[in-house]
Structure formats: structure tokens, C-alpha cells
Design goal:
The complex is a heterodimer of chains A (263) and B (431).
Chain A lengths: L9 E10 L2 E11 L4 E5 L6 H9 L6 E6 L2 E3 L4 H7 L1 E4 L11 H5 L6 E2 L2 E2 L1 H14 L16 H13 L5 E5 L7 H16 L3 E5 L3 H7 L2 E6 L2 E7 L5 H9 L5 H14 L1
Parallel strand pairs in A: 3-10, 3-11, 6-9, 9-10
Antiparallel strand pairs in A: 1-2, 1-4, 4-5, 7-8, 11-12
Helix pairs in contact in A: 5-6, 8-9
Chain B lengths: L12 H5 L3 H6 L12 H14 L6 H17 L6 H26 L7 H18 L4 H24 L5 H20 L4 E3 L5 H7 L1 E2 L2 H28 L7 H24 L3 E2 H19 L1 H11 L1 H6 L4 H27 L1 E3 L7 H11 L12 H19 L4 H28 L4
Helix pairs in contact in B: 4-17, 5-11, 5-12, 5-15, 5-16, 5-17, 6-7, 6-8, 6-15, 7-8, 7-15, 9-15, 10-11, 12-13, 13-15, 16-17, 16-18, 17-18
Chain lengths: 263, 431
């Protein structure tokens, strides 16, 4: 088991968010520690993306509090989140196809020397970063367009690592990936954990969640619907929490006994 | 779910076939990469691979240029004479300058249809201030060029801030600035420029000293070699792949052949033309800005993905406005060169096929219409093709209508080549 620090890197306390007539999030609680992978699961429309966007500063919260390393903070804009040390990798990867890997990694924060791009230093650091993350791509000087989906995903994740964030949020990193590419991305998630980053992983894929997450936080209709330890929870339990087959401890317990009987 | 804990073990079939996979996996280099061999063999191998993958770059246009020269030379031996070539490289500067601005706009994946009218408006402004108002010519030139940039920025504002399509905004600009130019020129319609003044000299001044052309060629070759060499040494020192010395030498050699041949040709006639020197200086400058500065990187990024650029913290609006300002600036500069060539600002300035030629030059040179791919050098190659054809046909006394049709044919061919190479690149995974 990976060592988990006492104070969570990020804690959401009773977070609520409304969009017009829709109550997207109600009293949501979430804790992420350093060196911990928390999977955020839930059906479509459960509020996963909204929750992530409140953390990333895209949507400011209406009620509740966000604590960063034990201290309350305000996250009003994406820059606030970035300066705290939160990096978000969105589902649509936001890479430029026509620019090479190095250029994409440093896009918007190019290294300069007397006003001129320092390509040598950027390439050196890019190689260093990709090597430490054991990311294998054909070359750091080929355009993103020539990479496979999985390689692009790893580049997007590597890009989020450049600012050395404390918390990395991955929005469905394995959606639309093949078996091998999925394994590569999951590898990378484990490496992030080993290096002491806190990770929030949004996924619909239970196999992925079981493979890399330490905890699973379930959202249902914008509310918490349980936080489970992955090691001691069956997949059925998580799924029934997602679909709402369970809403309280009793049905959850019943589901568990049924599950064991059927085995 | 099997998850590899160590990267030392090859985990995919192609890697297993490759005994070097284990070693390669430790670095960031994928064993499946067709690693180029060192030295000249590797360079040629890479070249062949690029050809097959559809990365033609500037090759079609260079082949086309050679073909054009061969055809017209066989028709009329005056085509490759020093005088004709010198005339071509002076005449092309006006359209070429405008085309440089078009390259910037095309890199964004947008289009600027107003450049012809803006060039006419700028030359009219310069003529009015210099001749009618009696300002010093340098001031009139400065004001005209600044006005061009401001006009471009205004187009950019409507596009970037208000979100109107660039095509429509600049189409409106095309009409508006045409009207503006006619208004400024007044009832007379033509303002003659002093052919010995600053604007007049732009296309008529030649550095007649033989040493000037050779000196410039030597400087260009030495600077090219020095920057390549120093860059490669830095890469070697940082432990990242660098070009072999033989490749740098080959490139320098090719450049030297072209540079000294051009210098020799100029010295056979009147000497090194000022217009060409200014054009080359702008090309070097813009190429540097696009490929070596953060600003240039932003322009390419916007051509690749606007959303990615926005999320990377790039000020999309500012970059867009600035690119249209650059386009307006070069339109104005081009307008001054065109006015200089005829020593007057008149009502037909910026009309006719100027706009189409400027856009065609950028595209013929290899700038993609789809954004994100291109270099300002493309403008030079493209405009060389267009003006060479015009001069060649003129030597054959072929009439204007046929010229239009032939230029159109060349443009269409280029666009088709662009589309086909894009398809090939997609199948080769490079687009």
C-alpha cells in the first residue's frame, strides 16, 4: 500500500453548484491525499465533469468550501487552480496536431533565451520528462498527428506534469483507447502515484478503476453515493452505487451478501 | 488487466522483433522509429522516406520552377538572360511582400481578401502625403505602412473580437479600401511619384559594385553555416540528436551555389537590386519570428487547434489581431513597391489579379490552405513561379487572357498537389 499522508491535498466540504434551474452538485464531499488515486465514477449526468470543473476553476462553486492542504482556498478561475498546483487533462486532449511533441509539451510556457525559443533546452527537458515517466514515443520531434491515440494521451498527461502539480485530474484518459494504449496510460497513472502526486481519475471503465484506483468516489444525481476502498469492494457494489440500485447501507449490505451467494 | 511495471521489457510485438528494443525503451525513443543512419546515407534515406510519405515540402515548386525555366528558355533564349532574371526578381517583390502577409494569415487557417485594396490604399496615401502635401517621403512611407498595419488590425478586430468570419470581413475590406483609395486619389486619379525619391528608388536602385552581390552571398552562406554549426554543437553538448556535419555541409553547399549564381547573374546586369535585398531581409526576419520565437509558436498553435491554444493560456484574440495587422503591414509595403515600379499611384493599383497572385504565391510555395503549415519562404518560391510565367509569356507575346488562364492552371495544380499530399500524409500518419 502506498503511504498516504494525513492531511488531504484537496478536500471538498459540502460543495454545491447550480446552473439556472438545475442543481448540478449538492453537498459533495471529496478527499484526495498525496500518493493516492481516487476514481470518480457515476453515470452520465451524475456531475463528475461539473465537479472536476469546479476544482479546475472553470465553474466557481456556489456553496461549500474547498480546502487545499488543510487551508480553505477560493478557486475562481483556471489560473487559481494552476497556481495551487492542480493540473487537468481534459478528454479532448487539447494538443496541436501540427506542432511536434516538444512544442506541445511547452505550449504557452516556452523556454526562452534572450527572447528566442530555447529549443535545445526544451528538447532536453522533454526527453528527461518522458524518460522519467517511461513514456515511449517514436521521437520528440515528430508532429502530434503522427502519434497513436494512446501516445497522444500520454503526451497530454506528461504535459500536465511539467508544472510539477500536486494534484492531477484525468478526465476519462482511457476512453477510446485500445488494450495496449490503455495499459500504457494506466502505467502512467501508477507512476504518478509513485511519485507522490494525488490523482483524480474519471472513468466509466470499471476494469481501469479496479486496476489503478485506491478509492472510488461515486456520484449519483449530483450527490455523494459512497466512497469505497477498491481492495475491499466488489465491482457489483460499485456498479449498484452508480446506478442507484443501492441508496443506503442496508441495501448495500444485502447486495454484498447476494453477490457472495451467487459466487 | 496486465500492467507492465518496468519499461525495460518490450511489451509489444514489433518491439520484440527488434533486438535493440530493450535498449531503446530506456530512452524516450520508440524502437519502432525508423532511426536514421548517421551521415549522408541517413540523410538520403530520410529524404526518400519523406517523399513516399507525401512530405514533399518545397520540392514540387522547385521542380516546377526548373521546368518553367527549361520550357521558356527553349522557346526564347532571352528568358535566362541576366536582364530578364533581374527584372523578374525586382518585379516579384511587390506581390511577394503581400504574399508574406498572406502566409501569416493562412497559417491561422484564415484568409485575407483585402490585401490588394489595402496595398492600393497605402500607395495612394503615401503619394498624397509625399506629393500633394509635400511631406518628406520617409514620413509618408512610414505613415502609409503604419496605416496598412492599422487597417489590418481593424479587420482583425472584427474577426477576433466580434467573431465575424475573416473571409467576410476582409471581403468588405476589399471594397471599402478600394473606395477609400479612389476617394483619396481624387478626381485626377493618378499621382506621379518622383522616380528619384525614396519610393521611386525602391525598385530602381541597384548596388552596382560587383563586391556588393558577392559580399551579400558570402555573408548569407557564412551566417547560415555558423548558426547551423553552433546549433548542432549545442545539441550535441546537451546530448540530444543533432544533424551530422556532412548534412550541414551539404545544405550550406547548396545554398552557396544558389547564392553565388544569383550574385553572378546580378553582376552581369545592373548589380544587386535594392528591392530584392529588402525582400530577402523581410523573409529572413519573418522566418525567424515564426520559427524561433514564442509569438511564432503561438501562430502555428492557433493554426493547429484554437481550443488547445486557449487552454495553453495563449491570448487567441491578440494573436489573431496581430496576424491581420502583419498582413495589412505587408500589403502596404507591397503596395509601395508596386507603386515604385510604375512611379505613380493610380486608380488601378491593387486591382486585377494582384490579390489572387499574392494568395496563389503563398499556396504554390507550399503554404497549406488548411492552416498550421507553411513558411514565409514559400512566398518567395511561389511568387518566383508566378512572375516567371508572366515574363515568359510576355517574351512569347502571349496576350493577357491566356496569362490569366495559365496562372489559374498553375494555382489549381498546386492546390491539387496540396490536397493529395495531405491525403498521403494522412495515410502515412503525418497530417
Amino acid at each position: 500500500m502506498v503511504h498516504v499522508s494525513a492531511t488531504p491535498v484537496l478536500a471538498l466540504r459540502g460543495v454545491s453548484k447550480r446552473f439556472g434551474a438545475v442543481q448540478a452538485l449538492t453537498d459533495v464531499e471529496l478527499e484526495v491525499h498525496a500518493g493516492e488515486v481516487v476514481a470518480l465514477v457515476g453515470d452520465n449526468g451524475a456531475g463528475k465533469s461539473t465537479l472536476v470543473k469546479t476544482i479546475a476553476g472553470v465553474h466557481p462553486i456556489d456553496e461549500g468550501a474547498i480546502e487545499w492542504e488543510g487551508k480553505p482556498v477560493q478557486i475562481g478561475k483556471p489560473n487559481d487552480a494552476q497556481s495551487l498546483g492542480i493540473a487537468t487533462v481534459y478528454q479532448d486532449l487539447a494538443l496541436c496536431d501540427n506542432i511536434d511533441v516538444v512544442g506541445n509539451l511547452f505550449l504557452g510556457r516556452e523556454l526562452k533565451k534572450r527572447g528566442i525559443l530555447d529549443e535545445v533546452e526544451m528538447e532536453r527537458r522533454a526527453r528527461e520528462l518522458l524518460t522519467t515517466l517511461s513514456i515511449r514515443i517514436p521521437s520528440v520531434r515528430i508532429p502530434i498527428a503522427s502519434l497513436s491515440g494512446g501516445q497522444r494521451q500520454t503526451v497530454a498527461i506528461a504535459r500536465s506534469m511539467l508544472g510539477d502539480p500536486k494534484l492531477v485530474i484525468l478526465d476519462e484518459p482511457t476512453a477510446a483507447l485500445g488494450v495496449e494504449q490503455t495499459a500504457q496510460v494506466l502505467d502512467l497513472v501508477e507512476r504518478l502515484r509513485e511519485r507522490g502526486h494525488a490523482v483524480i481519475l474519471i472513468s466509466h471503465n470499471m476494469a481501469d478503476v479496479k486496476a489503478v484506483a485506491d478509492k472510488v468516489a461515486v456520484l449519483r444525481l449530483g450527490r455523494n453515493n459512497g466512497v469505497f476502498e477498491v481492495k475491499t469492494t466488489s465491482q457489483e457494489e460499485i456498479i449498484s452505487a452508480i446506478t442507484g440500485a443501492t441508496d443506503n447501507a442496508v441495501t448495500r449490505r444485502a447486495a454484498r451478501t447476494n453477490g457472495e451467494v451467487s459466487k | 488487466m496486465s500492467i507492465e511495471k518496468t519499461s525495460e521489457t518490450p511489451q509489444d510485438a514489433p518491439a520484440v522483433e527488434n533486438p535493440e528494443a530493450a535498449a531503446a525503451a530506456v530512452t524516450a525513443v520508440d524502437p519502432r522509429l525508423l532511426v536514421r543512419e548517421q551521415g549522408l546515407t541517413g540523410y538520403l534515406g530520410e529524404f526518400k522516406r519523406k517523399m513516399r510519405a507525401g512530405e514533399l515540402g518545397s520540392l514540387p515548386v522547385i521542380v516546377g520552377l526548373v521546368a518553367i525555366c527549361a520550357i521558356f528558355q527553349s522557346l526564347n533564349s532571352a528568358f535566362l538572360s541576366a536582364q530578364n532574371l533581374s527584372d523578374i526578381t525586382v518585379t516579384m517583390v511587390g506581390t511577394g511582400m503581400i504574399s508574406v502577409g498572406i502566409v501569416f494569415v493562412l497559417l491561422l487557417g484564415e484568409i485575407d481578401l483585402s490585401v490588394g485594396s489595402v496595398s492600393g490604399a497605402a500607395s495612394a496615401l503615401a503619394a498624397v502625403f509625399a506629393v500633394n502635401q509635400g511631406w518628406p517621403e520617409w514620413l509618408a512611407v512610414l505613415v502609409a505602412v503604419a496605416a496598412g498595419a492599422a487597417i489590418g488590425a481593424a479587420h482583425g478586430f472584427f474577426f477576433a473580437v466580434l467573431g465575424a468570419p475573416a473571409f467576410a470581413v476582409t471581403l468588405a475590406g476589399l471594397l471599402f479600401w478600394l473606395g477609400f483609395m479612389l476617394q483619396v486619389l481624387g478626381a485626377n486619379g493618378t499621382i506621379n511619384l518622383d522616380s528619384d525619391g525614396l519610393i521611386g528608388q525602391l525598385t530602381t536602385y541597384f548596388f552596382s559594385d560587383v563586391a556588393a552581390a558577392y559580399g551579400l552571398a558570402a555573408v548569407v552562406v557564412i551566417v547560415f553555416f555558423a548558426t547551423s554549426y553552433v546549433g548542432n554543437r549545442r545539441r550535441e553538448a546537451a546530448g540530444i540528436p543533432s544533424r551530422p556535419l556532412s548534412e550541414t555541409a551539404l545544405r550550406t553547399g547548396l545554398l552557396a551555389v544558389v547564392a553565388f549564381a544569383a550574385a553572378y547573374m546580378y553582376n552581369q546586369y545592373k548589380g544587386l537590386p535594392l528591392a530584392t535585398v529588402i525582400f530577402l531581409a523581410f523573409l529572413v526576419l519573418t522566418d525567424f519570428v515564426l520559427r524561433r520565437t514564442a509569438y511564432g509558436r503561438k501562430v502555428f498553435a492557433l493554426g493547429g487547434s484554437v481550443e488547445a491554444s486557449r487552454r495553453a493560456g495563449i491570448n487567441v484574440t491578440a494573436v489573431r489581431i496581430s496576424v491581420f495587422a502583419i498582413s495589412g503591414f505587408f500589403a502596404a509595403v507591397g503596395g509601395l513597391f508596386l507603386a515604385s515600379k510604375i512611379a505613380s499611384a493610380n486608380q488601378s493599383a491593387g486591382a486585377g489579379d494582384l490579390l489572387m497572385n499574392a494568395i496563389a504565391a503563398a499556396v504554390i510555395g507550399g503554404t497549406s490552405l488548411f492552416g498550421g503549415r507553411g513558411r514565409t519562404w514559400n512566398a518567395l518560391l511561389g511568387v518566383l513561379v508566378i512572375v516567371s510565367i508572366q515574363y515568359g509569356l510576355q517574351l512569347e507575346s502571349i496576350a493577357e487572357p491566356v496569362k490569366y488562364m495559365i496562372t489559374a492552371g498553375v494555382l489549381l495544380t498546386t492546390v491539387v498537389i496540396d490536397s493529395i499530399t495531405r491525403k498521403t500524409q494522412k495515410t502515412a500518419g503525418r497530417a
